[in-house]
Amino acid sequence: MASTTVINANATSKLQPSTAAPIEPLKNDAARLYTHIHPILVLSLYAFKFPALVADPVSTLLGTLAPLAVLQIAFVAVCMPPTGGAPTIKKQKPGEKKPKGPGQLEQRLNSKIVPAFLSLLLTAIAATPLLTTTLVLFGAPVSTHHLHTLLCGAHIAILSTLPLVYVHGVNGETWRQIVALLLPMDEVYGGLIGTVLGAWLGAVPIPLDWDREWQKWPVTIVTGAYIGYAVGKLLGGTLLKGKKIMFD
């Protein structure tokens, strides 16, 4: 029987794991503060909307997509380095005129906000259909509840995939390592794993014969995804940071 172990990022593996280092949050006061506040805000948004979600899943899931996207964009823009890290600064030679460049606001837009919105766009057009299809393959209703499943996939995608696209881009080799669980744990990767595991565990109450309104599709799936995201992000940035999940 296969066993699962967690080992240090520098340990060798038969699967030839990536030598990439965990993603470090930006070293400024705003990043340090918001990275801790962010999961509280995400869970608070969901808790506030939970009664409405049980009563009307489609309208509530649709209405909370924009606030969730704003929170995720704020998280990556404030706390995380975009793909490629910080730009290199060219040293100026003595007597050389300083070249005119973009202003501070334009630099910030180009380096942070634009990549964040591009990450949201890629999440919407690529990750959401993929995750929606995965939900169907794992037992979501096929002939009914199409909007329920699509919006559930969208919420899972924004929680798990948007930050990963922002920090890792669309490099094929990096994403193969992400799927194979070869990257070292950090806040962003921990958020992905926590979201997926949470959504999977969230399916457990659905078939139970309790006759509760909150058991209907996809309330428990989304609930598990939100809780799993917050827990995975916390553990990935603290206790499990720099470690990898390997299957022996």
Explain what the structure shows.
- By secondary structure, the protein is mostly helical.
- The protein has one domain.
- It has 8 helices and 2 strands; from the N terminus they run βααααααααβ.
- The chain has helices at 29-55, 57-79, 104-137, 146-160, 162-168, 172-179, 187-202, 219-237; strands at residues 4-8, 243-247.
- The chain has a two-stranded antiparallel sheet.
- α1 (29-55) runs antiparallel to α8, α2 (57-79) crosses α3 (104-137) and α2 packs parallel to α5.
- The longest helix has 34 residues, at 104-137.
How would the blueprint of this fold be written?
Layout: E1 4-8, H1 29-55, H2 57-79, H3 104-137, H4 146-160, H5 162-168, H6 172-179, H7 187-202, H8 219-237, E2 243-247
Antiparallel strand pairs: 1-2
Helix pairs in contact: 1-2, 1-8, 2-3, 2-4, 2-5, 3-4, 3-5, 4-8, 7-8
